[in-house]
């Protein structure tokens, strides 16, 4: 029995899309120690095409983070209420290769700002908030989002919340984040 492999990407856009998707998976799993050869194999392209389309590994990492921040920022304008937007971001964060990649960079003592110096999703949300209390609520929300994306599974185990409770816990934490952004952290403007 012959197993057919997915076809190799052709053309600039297909190659870039395949490489960005593969690189996002590998950087999230291995940080900057991810191998360009493994990324190329996963994307079904040769390493030379990565160099041609992206340059070196640092430039590929910047492109991956840039693509991911653009995708996150696109969610904000479609949702008028920033509290609801934060809830949606949280609900989508479980498999966030973006957050995991940032965690690897910081744990490796890499200067994350050399790879990303702007945060369009957070900036777009901040512009929609009126008070310092809400700004701090947003900051607290992103601390939870980032922590949950990296440590959620471990925390479920630590708190005896089996995997079948993940949806319930995620929903309740989403309620909390939505409230944090909507009302802010009381007394923070004193």
What does this structure look like?
With 190 residues, this protein is mostly helical. It has one domain (11-183): Tetracycline Repressor, domain 2 (Orthogonal Bundle). It has helices spanning 11-30, 36-43, 47-54, 57-78, 82-91, 97-107, 120-128, 132-158, 166-183. The longest helix has 27 residues, at 132-158.
Lay out the secondary structure.
Elements lengths: L10 H20 L5 H8 L3 H8 L2 H22 L3 H10 L5 H11 L12 H9 L3 H27 L7 H18 L7
Helix pairs in contact: 1-2, 1-3, 1-4, 1-6, 4-5, 4-7, 5-8, 5-9, 8-9
Q: How would you briefly describe this protein structure?
A:
The chain is 70% helix and 0% strand. The chain has 190 residues and is mainly alpha-helical.
List keywords for this structure.
globular; 190 residues; Tetracycline Repressor, domain 2; mainly alpha
CATH superfamily: Tetracycline Repressor, domain 2
Shape label: globular
Summed up, the helix count is 9
- Classified by CATH, the class is Mainly Alpha
Distance between the termini: 72 Å
Number of domains: 1
Strand content: under 5%
At CATH's second level, what is the architecture? Answer: Orthogonal Bundle
